[in-house]
Structures are given as C-alpha cells and as structure tokens.
Amino acid sequence: LLLGPPPPPLESREIPTPAAAAAPTEEIDRRRNLAIISHPDSGKTTMTEKLLLYGGALQQAGAVRQKAEQRSTQSDFMEMERERGISISSTVMNFDYEGYRLNILDTPGHQDFSEDTYRALAAADNAIMLLDAAKGLEPQTRKLFEVCRLRGLPLFTFCNKMDRPALSPYELMDQIQEEFNLESFPVLWPIGDGDRFKGVLDRMEDVVHLYQKPVKRGGKAEVVLIPFNDTAKLRELINDEELYNKLIEDHELLNELIEPLDMDRVLDGELTPLFFGSAMTNFGVQLFLDKFLDMGTKPTSRDAFTKDTTDGSGNDDDTNIVSPQFQEFTGFVFKTQANLDPKHRDRLAYVRVVSGVYEKGMKVGHSRSKAGKKYNLAQAQALFGSDRSSIDVAYPGDVIGINNPGMFGIGDTLFTGADRVAFPGIPSFSPEKFCYIRSPNPSDYKSFRKGIDQLLQEGAIQALRQRNDDGGGPLMLAAVGELQFEVVQARLKNEYKVEALMEPLGYTLARWADGGWDAVDKADADGKLFGIMIVQDRWARPVLLFRNDWKASSLTEDEKDLQLSPWSQ
Ligand code: GDP
Predict the structure, then answer these.
(1) What predicted TM-score, i.e. pTM, was given to this entire model?
(2) ipTM > 0.90?
(3) What does the pLDDT look like over 292-326, one tens digit per residue?
(4) Rounded to whole angstroms, how far apart are CA atoms 230 and 558?
(5) Which of 67, 111, 280 to mutate to test the pocket of ligand 1 (most atoms within 8 A of CB)?
(6) Cα 460 to middle of ligand 1, angstroms
(7) What is the pLDDT of residues 143-176, one digit of tens each?
(8) Alpha-carbon torsion (159, 163, 169, 172), positive or negative
(9) Is the CB of residue 164 below 6 angstroms from any atom belonging to ligand 1?
(10) From ligand 1's centre to the CA of 43, what distance in Å?
(11) Among residues 26, 317, 442, 507, which is most buried (max CB within 10 A)?
C-alpha cells in the first residue's frame, strides 16, 4: 500500500475561538462519526442494519436489509454494485440515538476501491473493525487496518458471529497483537460460542449480560443483567458448569493480565477496545453501541494551513489547528460523484464539516480558488445512500452533499471568513493498473469524452497520455485496482450511453519524474529507460511506467536526477 504525499509536518497553534457564530457545544459533543472496516461477509451490512434499528431508523434499516438479501448493501446504488454485490462508493448514513447523532461512513469492501475507503476514513473520527470471530483477521481487514493506522484513528474491534463456533477470544487478541502490533482491551468478554453463546461479561461494570433468544429475527434481544459477584445467580442462569467455571477463571486472569483501560492510548490508536457479539441474532450490539458512544471521540480538531489575507500579502502561510468550536465554517471535500441520481445528471461533492455551522445559502471561499472568490452553497443535502433530503443546517462532524459545478475536487477546503483555510490534501494512492480506453463508435466520441472527463474529475482514476499528445492520441487510464476500470466502463454505458473498449497494459507501477522532461530526455538518451513507457499526466508532467518493482527501485537509486516519486505531487 503506497500512498502519498504525506501531509507536511505542522507547527501548530490553536486558532482562537471567539464565541461568535461557533457551533453549539452540545451539537458538537453529541456527534460521533464512524466508519466500519471489514472483510466481505463478516457482517458489516447486518451490523449497519442493527445499528440503524437501535437508532429507530426503521425505514432505512429495512432498506439495508432488503438490499442485503439481494447480496448488496444500502449504499450500493450503482448498477454494477448491485450486480456484483460489492460496495464500491462510500456513502453516509446518519441517525439519532439516546441524544447522540451518529454518522456512519460506509466504506467499500473490495480492495480495488481502497482509495475510496481511505477518503471515507479521512472524514471519519472513529473506525470499527468488524471481524468474523471464526476467521479472525482476513486479507481485507489487514489492508484496511493499514489505512486506519495511517490516519491514526481510534479503532474499536467487534468480533462478530459469536453464535457460530468461534476462535478463542485469546486467540483473536493474539492475532491482533501479533499482526497489527496493536494491544487490545477486552471491554466485553464472551461466555461460550456457537450454540452455547450465553452472553457477555461487561468488564467495565463487572456485570454479566445473559441473552435470551430474540423473539423474532431483527428484534432487540431480551437481556438479563447479573452483577458478576452474584455468583449463585450467575451459576444458575448460565446453567452450564463448564462455561461458568471458565468465566470465573477468565475474569480473574484478565484482571491480572490486562492493564486498566487507558483512553488516551485508545484515542491515539494504540489500543483497541474489544467487543464480542452476534449482529445477526442481535447479541451484544446495543451494548457495543452504548460503549462506543461513551468511548468514541466526538468531532476532533484538525491541522490546517491558513493564509492570512488580511495584510494583503497573501503569502503569510501559517499552520494552525482548527477546532470544531472555531467560529467560521470550514469543511473539506472527501468524495465527489457525478450522476448520483441518473434522473438528475448532477454532480455532488461530499463535504465533511470541521468547524462552525453550515447554513443554507451561505457563501464560502475555496482553497484552490483566488482569494476573495466566493461560492454560494445554496442547497446542501443530507445523504443516505442514493436518497437525499435537503438540509438547512449542519454542524461539525456532519457530512453534507453540495452541488459541484466542477471546481470542487477531493481534498479541497471550503471556508467562511477573511482568512483562507486549507486542510492538508487527502493523499492519493499510486496507480498499479493501466489500460488504454477508446470509443469504438466515432459518432459517440463527444459523449465518450464528456463521460470520461466527469469520471476523471471524481478522482477515482487518473488519465495518462503519450508525450506531446495534445488530446488527439490514445487515452490511457491508471488506477489502483482492475475493477475501477470496469466501473468506468459500466458507468459510461449506464450514465452516458456509450461503449468503451479497454486494452490492458502490462505495467504495474508508475513513477512521476519530478526532475522534469530534461532529466527524462537525458536518461533516455543514455539508454537508461529501455523497456519503460514514458507518458504524461494531465498537467503534462512526465510519468514513467514500469513492469516491475525491481526496475523502478534500481532506476530510482541510479538516476537521482529523475527524482522519481510514486505519486503525483
Ligand atoms: P458483509 O459482506 O460484511 O456486509 O456481510 P453481511 O452482513 O452481508 O453478512 C454476511 C453473511 O453473514 C450473511 O449471510 C449474514 O446473515 C451472516 N451474518 C452476519 N452476522 C452474523 C452473525 O452474527 N451470526 C451469523 N451466524 N451470521 C451472521
């Protein structure tokens, strides 16, 4: 997993937060943003559905389930997603529960869309890692975990499917420790597994939750609470001598072995609170939700660059921390999408609100536009998969969808006030798949170009061309995963009604030559670029395509003047 460039180190100072039009503290405090990461089939759809049910979002939960039954998820609104039952683009779901506002950022499960996941995680404040307790860590959990670690997110681990034969909880803890070098803190501890899954010990309260089978699938499980020290009652209700003895033993062992919970380490992503349950039969989900709301972080401060425009110099770049209480509105785009609703043919930018209050019709500055230029945020939308509703106000932690006339790109900051604010850009992944793409029907060319241009703007794929090509030559696409090409093809067909032919290229890695064209020419003249394809990106910067890692690393070492780097700066 190679991505960059990393945000430059920041020297920070807190931006003063006058009381003016800051977001109300209670609105900030009640918000929790989370993204669920998991290997496909671990139960993310089921878990999301259950969480929505607890939030009383019955209708939405129904939609999740309905689509889940078609092997798809609530957020799978694109044709291809439905066909394949994979979640490609991330969306947002929100609901209220016990006074909290939860924003769930859905992340695509398939590894070819890791970049989209990374962006969703850039907008999340907390991550939940869902494991299938019978399988433990799986390939996709590993990849996504890396992404979480890069973001430094607090990570909560839920071991699902305890109603089926599971690995021992100690084994699961060992896996997390050994593979991720991450300590876990069991908050809940399971009593049995499979048919003998009786419930969980809440180690924070020293109370045992024993579950009765839920009346119907999807209903809330009936729970009996017993203080751990009421051993007679416990023994009677567990009604399984072996499990009872094991519980007593585990309780003692854990208290001896595990240090008290250090929330600072959780918030720094060094320690993961660990939970056990069964999303399908609804065991432990509500308990998990309650604990998560208590332990998870509310919307956090973020580093930003601010350019003080008040002295007119325009070059006075400071680095600051923008706290959610900052009185100006700030937010950043983490995803853009065209044709979310094919009927409307519109383009949306998803904005994560970082500070202040979004109000309908407000005017904002844009980090990449000229100072002083303002855009009208006329009609923001709350998003729920493919459904949306118009909203008048949004607070830090919320995600809003705004109409994107085309200039809002991923990583861009929107802000009110005289001072320019720019959050560090969201790094992109270095592409590893390349193909030629063309339209077989010359008469479709215009629609084909339009479609390609709009899809490129979403930032999921990049376009490359041959050197000195001013637009007439063959178009090459570069992406992280093969499926991304298929999405382009499918979307061109569905949304722009044009066919596209693709021809894969055998290159596996791209390096941008920051040394410029002169350096490339020199290396080429010296015969160093044999077998390497030389192309340009959309800013006409030189890019070299390699067939293998070895060649790329040796050239990076040997030809320092090329200044090869794995991403576009
Ligand atoms: P996703 O691919 O991660 O979204 O997983 P799904 O939520 O679609 O679940 C995959 C399969 O596992 C489905 O057949 C679910 O019914 C099943 N499943 C989910 N959670 C549980 C659970 O807690 N116990 C059991 N036994 N099955 C579960």
Answers:
(1) 0.80
(2) yes
(3) 999 999 999 988 887 554 444 444 456 778 999 99
(4) 71
(5) 280
(6) 29
(7) 788 878 878 899 999 999 999 999 999 999 999 9
(8) negative
(9) yes
(10) 4
(11) 507
